[in-house]
Amino acid sequence: MLPANLLPVSASESTQHLPAPPVAPDTRLRRLRVAQGILLLFHVTGFVGLAFSQNPAFYLQFVPLNLVLTAVLLFAFQRDRSFAFLSFCLTVVVVGFFVEVVGIRTGKIFGQYSYGATLGFAWLGVPLIIGLNWLMLTYMTGILARYLPLPGFVRAVAAALLMVGMDICLEPVAVRYDFWTWAYDLIPLQNFKGWFAVALILQVYFNRTDFEKRNPLVPFVYLVQLLFFFGLSWFIR
Questions:
Q1: 84-136 pLDDT tens trace
Q2: Within a domain: residue 162?
Q3: Measured distance CA(39)–CA(27) in Å, rounded
Q4: H or E element: which one contains 172?
Q5: Is 167 a domain residue?
Q6: Helix, strand, coil shares, percent, the chain, to 5
Q7: Is 160:203 a contact under the CB 8 Å cutoff?
Q8: Rounded distance, CA 162 to CA 165, Å?
Q9: Can you tell me where the transmembrane regions are (predicted)?
Q10: At what angle do helices 218-235 and 63-76 cross, to 10 degrees?
Q11: What separation in angstroms does the CA of 48 have from each of 44, 93, 106?
Q12: For the chain, what is the domain count?
């Protein structure tokens, strides 16, 4: 009788403990191009619909869905989904949401504003999807800033400025399409100061959280969103 370690094993038994083969570079690139194509289709369709349609309300109803699908594609390319990363995501979503709750109730963070119906279901006067928006922006700008050869805090400042830059492009579109409205129809300077302060705190937290901070889809998502809001704000003037 042969010793146990010399007994023949089936092919499935001999391979079941082997590590999964790495994804080939061309496969990763193909997946990236598919994701970029889907995102481009989302944003081009939305731009054309809002800018040229006789019924922009039809396209506005898909704004929350568009944001969720963008987030799904974006985080699909985040390879490290460790506890630290998931904790970071949950913390930013919660902080971003409740900062907005305090903001609309006191007017002391961003100024006097209130949310409309476009962003979907709201709790405590704030659409639930706002927390996801804070997460995506914090995550994307934090990763983009890591391309800069800067010390940690200066990099956090740069990332916070990228977030404020996105908000500057977003504000005219948000007001026009009832994302939110400002008192006296005036976007206050306080809004951008508040955005910078909150963004800077979140970026410092981003830098101090230990997870892999690389995502090949991030530059494309940030750029396509920036162009979408900048182009639409210019068109609706």
A1: 999 999 999 999 999 999 999 999 999 999 999 999 999 999 999 999 999 99
A2: yes
A3: 18
A4: helix 152-176
A5: yes
A6: 70, 5, 25
A7: yes
A8: 5
A9: 34-52, 58-76, 83-103, 115-135, 147-166, 186-205, 217-236
A10: 160
A11: 6, 30, 37
A12: 1
